[in-house]
Amino acid sequence: MKIAANGQQQEHGQTQRRELSVDLERIKRGEQWHDELAGEIGDDRSSVYWLSDSRNLFIRNPDPDDLLSQGYSAQNGSFFLEGKTEEGTPIDPTLKIYHNCNDELEPGYRKVVFTLPDKSITRAAKPNSTFDAGVIQLELEFKDEEREFTVD
C-alpha cells in the first residue's frame, strides 16, 4: 500500500500542517515495564498534527508484540505517549517520528528514530515520572534518517 502525503499548504503566510506519526516501540521483552514520554515537535514554519484515524499506518512488518504506544502530536506539536509491557527481560524503547517537515514535495515520509534513555523506563505498573523529550526540531536532517514509502 502506498502512503500518500496528506499535508496541506495554505498560501499567504498561513500555517502549513503535515501528517505526523510518533511510535514508541519495545525492542526487547520485559517483565512489567512502563514508559511515559512527553515532548514537543518543532518546525519553525508550521504547526504539526496527526490524523486520529491512522492505525499502525507507518510501521513496516508490524509485530503487535513490539508496539508499546502510538499516538499523534497536538496541533501545537506537543505529544504524550505511555506504554506498558509485561514480559521477562528489560526493554530498550525507541521513539520513531514520521513526518514531512521541510520536505513536503518528496514522496513518502521522513523517519527519525531515537533510542530512549534508561531513566525513561520504570520497572513498575505505574511510572515514577514522565521523561521530557524536550523540543525536537524536525527541520534538521538527522544522521541515519530514513524515508518510508510503503507499509507491507
UniProtKB/TrEMBL annotation:
It comes from the Eukaryota. Pfam families: TTR-52. It is found in: Secreted. Gene3D superfamilies: 2.60.40.3330. Keywords: Secreted, Signal. One of its GO terms (cellular component) is cell surface. PANTHER family: TRANSTHYRETIN-LIKE FAMILY PROTEIN (PTHR21700:SF4), TRANSTHYRETIN-LIKE FAMILY PROTEIN-RELATED (PTHR21700). Belongs to the nematode transthyretin-like family. This is Transthyretin/hydroxyisourate hydrolase domain-containing protein. It comes from Diploscapter pachys.
